UniProtKB/TrEMBL annotation:
Record protein name field: LemA family protein
Gene3D superfamilies: LemA-like domain
Pfam family, one: LemA
Domain of life: Bacteria
Location within or outside the cell: Membrane
Transmembrane segment boundaries: 7-27
Family (UniProt): Belongs to the LemA family.
The organism of origin for this protein: Paenibacillus aceti
Record bears the keyword Transmembrane helix: yes
Amino acid sequence: MNSRRKGWLVPVVIIVAVIVIFIAMFAGKYNKYVTAEENVDQQWSKIDVQLQRRYDLIPNLVNTVKGYAEHEKEVIKSVSDARAALGGARTPAEKADADSQLSSALSRLLVVVENYPTLKADTQFTQLMDELSGTENRIAVARNDYNTAVADYNKLIKRFPGNILAGMMGFEKKAYFETTTESRTNPEVDFGTGNTNTSLHFDNEAVSAPVVVGALTAITGPMAGASA
């Protein structure tokens, strides 16, 4: 009788042990996926905050430009339309595309501004430009952090055997926040500093706030700090 019990007890113990190991592995992987996904969401929220800040600054910029160059309707409309697209975007991919459109529209606006010395010297305009350049810089930093988090997450769910468990648990690949070629190509804007390398960039991939502030300061003198 004891021999019979031992005969079926061993397989049962082995099966139970396998189940326990599988559950432990399942729980460990699940927790890792959740943590990685939460990190992606946190980094995305930082981008979203800065995109909203940028979105909120545009109306004041447009109104200021209108006051000096109202007949530049096409370029002003392109900025307003790009802002509307950003406001309607929902997914990271949609927001990345809309942000690229806005960057391109702002670049064209800067070219137009070159023809209006009085506008370039307007205190409100220079302060808005300062705030926008600071926002662009923060977007660039947040974008890099987000893409790093996405890369870590995507690698985690694609590695074997984790990819099998990820598929079973519904964890899917995340999209990067990527700029388009158009948004990375910015026209150079010479503000009369004599430096042909001076340009104002509205590019969420590579923005240098000191360059922007320095170029504007050459015309208007020290400007107010960027608001948070």
